């Protein structure tokens, strides 16, 4: 594996439907080049350090579909938090919310109409990306470095226009600890493979930028529980926050918890932490490993930790609270 390690800093490319992960075969989260892959699902003896995480795998042979990554010089530095927040808010203001998404959010997700409006849910369907980008530019924005937006070559091949990629669904904000919109995520109308959510990102595009693996900080309208909850998924965190009246941190996935301990130490140093990972942490070894690593990090940081427990007929804690299921707590330390 030492041979593979020397290539970890070589350009990597994100997997997609045309170029799936050579290790797990999935079309999202992972990355690879011609020599190694960083898989977010299949474990190896070499855990990749840092916020992104994953496991390093040496490839026996170069995948037949591999294409060398174009120079990274075209990728822009991420815009400031203030710029991203302003652009995203005005971007959302240009969208509406379809009736079927309102029904989904109210009937199946438990949001009131007032909460739906306040949180900022919008439909990303039947839009012309270049037109929306032009409207943002006409408002005075420079979209360079704002994750999700990028420049695509025009048909004549002599210039570029601003654009973004999307798959139909409802889009919503991922907030930072100050309430700024740090990223956007779409709940897809039709899953792509096993992927139901899609981050608004453009890290491998001309003058685009990656949103990374942001941690959503969901804050309730009325604070009832002073503990800080941690769960998987921004939408789940938003639902849970409103129902239990607590600040809830939502990670992109079970194994992207690395930014959480630092965020907790900086912003909530005296708070007790409640871990509320999905119930598949008892049956899925990858989720179980991620959960154990998270718990260890919180304990090592000297913070008080408890596990939220509910009837496992409900996979997620959001489903449990919407069903008015009793939540119990087990002290970890």
From TrEMBL:
Superkingdom to which the source organism belongs: Bacteria
InterPro entries found in the cross-reference section: DUF3854
Residue ranges of domain DUF3854 in the record: 228-324
Name of the protein: Toprim
Lineage: Bacteria, Bacillati, Bacillota, Clostridia, Eubacteriales
């Amino acid at each position: 594996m030492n041979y593979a390690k020397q290539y970890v800093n070589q350009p990597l490319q994100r997997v997609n439907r045309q170029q799936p992960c050579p290790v797990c075969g999935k079309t999202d989260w992972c990355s690879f080049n011609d020599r190694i892959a960083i898989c977010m699902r299949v474990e190896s003896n070499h855990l990749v350090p840092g916020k992104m995480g994953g496991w390093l795998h040496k490839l026996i042979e170069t995948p037949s579909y591999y294409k060398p990554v174009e120079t990274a010089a075209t990728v822009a530095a991420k815009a400031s938090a203030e710029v991203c927040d302003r652009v995203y808010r005005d971007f959302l203001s240009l969208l509406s919310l379809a009736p079927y998404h309102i029904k989904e959010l109210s009937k199946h997700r438990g949001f009131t109409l007032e909460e739906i409006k306040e949180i900022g849910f919008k439909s990303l369907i039947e839009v012309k990306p270049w037109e929306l980008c032009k409207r943002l530019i006409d408002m005075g924005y420079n979209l360079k470095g704002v994750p999700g937006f990028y420049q695509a070559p025009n048909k004549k091949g002599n210039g570029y226009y601003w654009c973004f990629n999307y798959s139909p669904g409802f889009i919503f904000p991922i907030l930072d600890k100050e309430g700024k919109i740090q990223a956007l995520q779409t709940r897809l109308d039709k899953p792509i493979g096993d992927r139901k959510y899609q981050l608004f990102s453009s890290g491998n595009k001309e003058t685009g930028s990656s949103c990374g693996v942001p941690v959503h900080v969901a804050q309730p309208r009325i604070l009832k529980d002073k503990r800080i909850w941690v769960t998987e998924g921004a939408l789940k965190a938003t639902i849970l926050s409103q129902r239990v009246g607590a600040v809830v941190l939502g990670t992109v996935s079970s194994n992207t918890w690395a930014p959480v301990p630092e965020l907790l130490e900086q912003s909530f140093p005296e708070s007790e932490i409640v871990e509320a990972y999905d119930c598949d942490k008892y049956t899925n070894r990858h989720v179980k490993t991620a959960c154990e690593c998270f718990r260890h990090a919180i304990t090592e940081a000297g913070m008080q930790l408890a596990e939220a427990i509910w009837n496992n007929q409900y996979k997620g804690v959001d489903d449990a609270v919407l069903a008015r299921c009793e939540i119990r707590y087990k002290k970890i330390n």
